[in-house]
Design goal:
The protein has eight helices and seven strands, in the order H-H-E-E-E-H-H-H-H-E-H-E-E-H-E. With 166 residues, it is of the alpha+beta class. The strands form two sheets. The protein has a four-stranded antiparallel beta sheet with strand order 5-6-4-7. It is elongated, with a radius of gyration of 19 Å. 21% of the residues are buried.
């Protein structure tokens, strides 16, 4: 998706950085304002967080609002709660999969099948977008810790280069 819209920001590197971060975080633009879910975020605070000028944030909002394709996309973004850092506190399992080729289909399905066949419920699965992340990963959070006996099967699953357990 990013490849299809990044040309709108080609001449504005700061706007490109801001827009990319907004996509990564699921920040939407509605009525010339930026929101995280229903919470409005000020351009000044976004600028400080991204180490850019407030005017660059305002210009990014204008670019998005003035381009119908961008407006359609950015008006529908939603933030996602990522449970990987909370999981150990809740006694859930976490597996981080490093793929051989992140665009290869079936990696999630292969790993999820192994987990399901062992009667372990998946609480959450999050896959980094290939276009938004330099090193995309698959994170699977399970209701219980994954037994060590499953690691060899998961390592051998389609598209798995390596895995990290938390």
């Amino acid at each position: 998706m990013w490849k299809e819209i990044s040309h709108y920001f080609k001449e504005y590197p700061k706007q490109k950085t801001i827009a990319l971060t907004m996509m990564e975080l699921g920040l939407k633009v509605t009525s010339n304002r930026i929101y995280c879910g229903p919470i409005e975020l000020s351009p000044s605070k976004i600028a400080r967080a991204l180490h850019v000028d407030r005017r660059a944030v305002s210009a990014t909002i204008q670019t998005i609002s003035n381009q119908p394709q961008l407006k359609k996309i950015f008006s529908k973004l939603l933030p996602t709660c990522h449970l990987k850092d909370v999981a150990p506190e809740m006694r859930w399992g976490v597996i981080e999969i490093i793929p051989t080729d992140p665009s290869q289909p079936g990696i999630l399905a292969a790993v999820a099948t192994i987990i399901a066949e062992n009667n372990i419920s998946i609480r959450q699965a999050i896959v980094d977008d290939v276009e938004l992340s330099a090193e995309p990963r698959l994170f699977i959070i399970t209701e219980t810790a994954i037994p060590g006996s499953l690691l060899p099967a998961i390592r051998k699953a389609k598209g798995v280069k390596a895995l990290i357990m938390y």
